[in-house]
Write a structure and sequence with these properties.
The chain is globular. The two termini are 20 Å apart. The relative contact order is 0.20. Helix 3 crosses helix 4, helix 3 packs parallel to helix 5 and helix 4 crosses helix 5. The protein is an alpha/beta fold. Helix content is 33%, strand content 28%. Strand 9 and strand 10 form a beta hairpin. It has two domains: 146 residues, Rossmann fold; 68 residues, no CATH class. It has a six-stranded mixed sheet, sandwiched between helices. It has a four-stranded antiparallel sheet with strand order 2-1-4-5, with helices on one face. The protein binds adenosine-5'-triphosphate (ATP). The site of adenosine-5'-triphosphate has 12 residues, from helix 1. Adenosine-5'-triphosphate binds next to helix 1.
């Protein structure tokens, strides 16, 4: 069953040339998919549309049965709770410790601190950082900081996990470790869509690869 459908999606920023043009694809629930392409090909734009940070200029985007174009602004925060997002620079709060960073989405939702603490520790356990919950981000390595970013993205148990160049700043060994984490979450049922230009890494992993060029889908290779 499709969890994401793009139908004839186009995106223009401020009336300029098209960042995305007539994009059509579906991603089924439970898939793990890489989105690749050169810098400026439109990878981040796809993710911004999926998180409603941007609206499509044309076409339809359906996520979990909801049409994003017709979603009222007031619904967007609720919609976003079902999606975990991992950024290249992880966007941690450097004056808060690991626990508080991961707890942030749950606090914003008003979850009871006791329930939140249980969730936070479960997420930190999954990324192997339970023993660092009191550390400040500055005390962690780059790879560990990215793991905190992933824990924060999954703390809500999202059906869909999006990541924009999550290994962009990491060396090959750490990148492979981070990819294994995404595979772990995928194995337990989370749909994963991951933008990356690290072709060597993603080719080894044998998941579906969608390739963009100048805002168009130029190839879509099924998992092998
Ligand atoms: N907010 C914006 N305003 C104007 N143009 C934008 C905006 N965001 C993206 N663009 C343009 O849209 C095109 C696609 O950008 P996008 O960030 O989606 O590509 P990308 O494949 O993610 O590239 P990168 O790997 O460099 O992040 C680029 O030409 C970019 O300059």
């Amino acid at each position: 069953m499709a969890i994401i459908t793009f139908e004839h999606v186009g995106k223009r920023y401020g009336g300029r040339y098209e960042a995305l043009a007539d994009l059509n694809f579906t991603i089924d629930a439970g898939e793990m998919v890489f989105l690749t392409g050169h810098s400026g090909a439109g990878k981040s734009s796809v993710l911004k549309l999926l998180t409603c940070l941007e609206r499509p200029s044309r076409g339809r985007i359906i996520v979990g049965g909801r049409d994003l174009a017709s979603m009222r602004a007031a619904r967007i925060p609720f919609y976003r709770r079902q999606i975990g997002v991992v950024f290249q620079d992880h966007q941690l709060l450097f004056d808060r410790n690991v626990f508080d960073n991961v707890a942030m989405p749950l606090m914003i939702q008003g979850m009871h601190p006791r329930d939140a603490a249980r969730r936070v520790r479960a997420a930190l356990d999954k990324v192997g950082l339970l023993h660092r919950e009191r550390a400040l981000p500055i005390e962690l390595s780059g790879g560990e900081q990215q793991r905190v970013g992933i824990a924060r993205a999954v703390v809500n148990k999202p059906a869909l996990l999006l990541a924009d160049e999550p290994t962009g700043n990491l060396d090959p060994q750490l990148s492979a470790d981070i990819m294994r984490l995404f595979e772990d979450f995928n194995r337990i049922g989370t749909t994963v869509l991951l933008a990356s230009h690290d072709l060597a890494l993603i080719a080894r992993l044998r998941h579906r690869i969608m390739k963009l060029r100048d805002g168009r889908l130029i190839s879509d290779r099924e998992a092998s």
